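Q: My labmate handed me this sequence with no annotations at all. I'd like to see what the chain might look like in three dimensions before we decide whether it's worth expressing. Could you predict it?
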Amino acid sequence: MKSFLWASLIESGRYDPNVEVQSKVYYMGIENGLPTYLPTRSGAYATITNYAHIDHGIVNLDVSFNKSLNTTVGIILSNYLKPSEYISTLDKMSLFKNLNVYGLRSVDGHKLDRYPIEMISMGFGQGSTITPLNMISAYQSILNQGQHIQPSIVKQIVDSTSGEVLYNNTPTLLNKVFSEATSEKMRHLLRSAVTDGTGRHYQIAETEIIAKTGTAEVPSAEGGYANDEYYYSIMAALPYDNPQYLVYYGFTAKDAVKPHQNVDAQKALLRKVAVSMNITEDQSSNETSVIHIPSFVNKSVAQYQFFAQENQLKTLILGDGNQITHLSIAPNSKVLSSSLILAQTNGPITKMPYVIGLSVNEARHLARFASLDIEIIGEGIIVDSNIPFNDPIDKKIILTALKP
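A: Here is what I predict for the chain of 404 residues:
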């Protein structure tokens, strides 16, 4: 939701990235039925803090977005943007409205914006309800040069007997929500949220992404919110320089440990999209160097991982052991940094390694090196596996490849 608020402020012409605000706590007062910012607790109707009650000190508006600060949301909606202006923008994106997508069941959301605290909480996503379809549809308003297009899942209907086209879907503009300049500024902000902010653990090697993380409380059946369960999500678009695909991934978890850091599943999905849609970075443009690989036999996996990261090696670590037993190259060899190096540990290979993006030849090399029963369908780049990454290997591995 913060992306919509920042985009609204930028569109208003009142956004100054150099404006600095305090981030310890936001005390909300009320004046003429609207929220106001109070410097102290005295007279406050509500108190808003950031995740884990962390004080980030004095920060500017760009950094506030990167760090996803709730306190800055309150300050923006008190001092820089009228809540009615923000809510009007949400309405232009049909955020709470049934989108009536042909062939798909969709429903209305529920907007809470009557009271001052609801106006503030609307800025960081509490109280109101929004469907995932509406959320992802609204995000394309930001990234598609400000245009909100009617979402659809049916492109064309063709008579299977005669070949006659019975229906052609024509993209329909619902609203021009933001200017192209606002769209471009938001794209850069969403990129900085990945490189320097809460989304930094979601970066993938295949292409540069832009993203915004979300963390929300979950309503309790007894009223109020659960104190041991949260809703975590990521809205990611790729590639950064010309977004073509949006991915929305969300889940609830009890006492989740570092939910925006342990993100292998989300990254696997983003990699699959990048490879399947052929939007990976041009490897020929990357500088390839010759790397001397010392012997890592009986060395720790952590030592090898550090070396591989330092030298940007393309590698797979196999097995769940803590020591390296052998590599797929001879000890003290020199290899191109673009070559795939397989590292076997002193533990058995019980879980599926990450294979999306490997070439067919590299996948065959993996099968021989690790003695895995792998069948490959197609040619080119591996885009799918019948056993998901990190799942137990309990059957024959079938990989699907496509030519770029």
